[in-house]
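quick one before i forget lol
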Amino acid sequence: MKLHFSFIIPVFNRPQEVEELLDSMLAMNYQKEYEIVIIEDGSTADSRSVVERYRGQLNISYYYKENTGPGDSRNYGMTKAKGNYFLILDSDVLLPKNYLVEVEKFLEQAFVHCFGGPDDAHASFTDLQKAISYSMTSYLTTGGIRGKKNTLGKFQPRSFNMGLSKEAFYASGGFGDIHPGEDPDLAIRLWKLGYDTAFLPGAKVFHKRRISWQKFYQQVHKFGLVRPILNAWHPHTAKVTYWFPSLFLISFLFALVFAGLGFWYVLPIYGIYLLILLVGGALKYNSIGIGYMVVIAVLVQFYGYGTGFLKSNYYIQLLKRDPKSQFPKLFF
């Protein structure tokens, strides 16, 4: 199959991010034609004027629609796209020069209907963005299930950097109405239909992620709420590793209690773990300050995800509540 790529980019009130993303696309070294589809999801601060400035340099289609969430906006964009292979991005990413070259080379050698690529922090990112990126992608915190190949099971691509064939899109119906969590849900449904997913190491993006501690906490808390819902929908995909942040919190509380009773020797284990993260972050970015921020990011991530995961398990798995009724804000 001759590949014709269409980038699918939903955006909500982030014109500056769209401008930076389009700038990175202009710098790509891919010589063939490709399409960019931008879907404005009911924004009040839209990207129309930004898109107009790039029309003479890039092949862009721009659509404005009412707010229905990122999953439905991606589906809308894919129905409008002219290509036969969709490259789905978040608006807060930047592309390396060789992104499309790497994607095309991989698909021509080992075609797959759905893939995901890694993410990293660009040198221009803030210290906070770098610390959060490390926390979200390190094997020491997530086991590599976000932004890197999951060695503990089949790879679940994430929609900030996902490839999806036109065939697989129409066969699956695309993204569901849950958010976040619409991307692993789609990957699992694709598996059930007989489609494989793959990790494409060369298709790296630079992902800015959330820009404040509060926004980061809200994001990871929602991730924690969503996972038990996905486990209820797809029980065969549940893994013990999803419990790690919650178990970290619970065991740490017990360690504090035991320390108060004189059994303090367990606490240093947590200190050693956090020290390893501090050193890892400091070495990666050559900054002890970022190393300390990595520790804060990991604690925020574990607390936000862990409490959300426990709460959702209580209502969804134990009480058997309907997810949409219990957590309506997770659905569009």
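fyi The chain has a mean pLDDT of 95.
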